[in-house]
Design a protein that fits this description.
- Two copies of one chain form a homodimer.
- Chain A is an all-alpha fold.
- The first copy, chain A, folds into two domains: 24-71, Homeodomain-like (Arc Repressor Mutant, subunit A), CATH 1.10.10; 75-211, Tetracycline Repressor, domain 2 (Orthogonal Bundle).
- In chain A, 69% of the residues lie in helices and 0% in strands.
- Chain A has ten helices and no strands.
- The first copy, chain A, has helices at residues 11-14, 26-46, 53-60, 64-70, 74-94, 103-120, 122-131, 139-161, 170-189, 197-211.
- In chain A, α2 (26-46) crosses α5 (74-94) and α9 runs antiparallel to α10 (197-211).
- In chain A, 31% of the residues are buried.
- At the A-B interface, α9 and α10 of A face α9 and α10 of B.
- Chain B binds a DNA duplex (30 and 30 nucleotides) through α3 and α4.
DNA sequence: TATCTCGGAATGAACATTCATTCCCCAACG
DNA sequence: CGTTGGGGAATGAATGTTCATTCCGAGATA
């Protein structure tokens, strides 16, 4: 019953700085980060169950055991990635959201921010899409998902109230937009080249025409 | 080296009718069908690697070994499902396609047929979407996919030539439409209730407004 | 030297697949 | 009409493999 190293708190954060004097967190973060990156890629390529933990270790350039110093289990790892990406995404997309702006502007902003983020992190986007609602996501991840969904729903509902969006189940409108967005990402990930900004604008225009009242 | 039963040819078809006099194929088909159905559901719920073969057997109400009388391997099983569904879907959606009709009509027809099929077989639709481009799909399945994609691309390109659809990469337009469609399906599978026809029409209208020139 | 992180072989559980056996159907026979 | 035997379908325990997780010795740090 001797307490094992606590994996939810990466070694360095728990102890005193074990790194170069200058408050340079990287020595610590590096491995954790490498693991997260490798796992993200592999989960996207092969799925959660299709990915073996030692594979993740190989790609991250660490030993298999090391993963368990940073994460309690494979499941904890996937949840960590999910939450980290979702949070990051949410912050970027919703930062300073112009609550009072016309819906047209709001939509353009959301779409373009999403496009930017997804262009820079296409794998991360696909990851979130893929793992959405999977049974290995824990309550905390689900709650996060719910919360973000709620934010978007509120925006949609209020825009509908102002008659700037078509009436209809908010779920439906959001499903269409998010689905289309994923479709766009896929259409470029599959070709393995990123969309140019003209294409993104075209897509934005198309979706707006779909949504507007 | 004694030849094992050939799994690609279900037992009954190879031998004399082993069933009730009346040319009733069901005794044979039943198990194969039950396996396909169970596997489809489980693959949708848990993914390919997340589903254990004996689980499939349980849900199908057969012994684990029986699956291997009908399919060479788990991989062969998933490919069989994929091809069967894709083919079925293609036939239904593209039957008597009105090549000369206005694009508006063509789109309405395609959308509504897809909606009907997906409403009747939501799991099948999600299955196809999920397994699309996975590495356990074999060349034959991929080729089928390509062929169907080609058909749709041709329709889009020719409609663009007639200036009835927006100009832009056909991949992009198709990605948006299919993505949005999946989004709609998801929005109702997740709520676990099927969309009513008004919602389907609304979605169709929205997407058409996105596409039209 | 004392402490702490790492790597990767070792471990036990779970899995896909196999195969010896059972079960079922029916035709032949008494 | 009841019994019996053959043949093939079905089964599920057994098999070898793969995997998530653990463990321990080796280095690094101080």
């Amino acid at each position: 019953m001797s307490p094992p190293p606590n994996p939810s708190q990466p070694p360095a954060r728990a102890s005193q700085p074990n790194l170069a004097k200058r408050g340079d967190k990287r020595v610590v973060t590096d491995k954790r980060e490498a693991i997260l990156d490798a796992a993200l890629e592999l989960f996207v390529e092969r799925g959660f169950f299709g990915t073996a933990v030692p594979e993740i270790a190989d790609r991250a350039g660490v030993g298999a055991g090391t993963i368990y110093r940073y994460f309690e289990s494979k499941e904890a790892l996937v949840n960590a990635i999910y939450r980290e990406q979702k949070t990051h995404w949410g912050k970027l997309v919703l930062a300073d959201f112009p609550v009072a702006a016309p819906t047209r502007e709001q939509f353009r902003l959301l779409w373009m921010r999403m496009a930017q983020w997804a262009t820079e992190n296409p794998k991360a986007f696909i990851f979130m899409e893929l793992h959405h609602h999977q049974r290995y996501l824990d309550d905390q991840s689900r709650a996060l998902e719910e919360r973000m969904l709620g934010l978007f729903t509120a925006v949609v509902v209020s825009a509908q109230a102002r008659r700037e969006l078509k009436a209809g189940p908010p779920q439906l409108l959001m499903g269409i937009v998010m689905g289309a967005f994923v479709g766009v990402i896929r259409s470029c990930v599959e070709i393995d080249q990123s969309l140019d900004s003209a294409d993104w604008k075209l897509a934005e225009q198309m979706l707006w025409e779909a949504l507007r009242a």
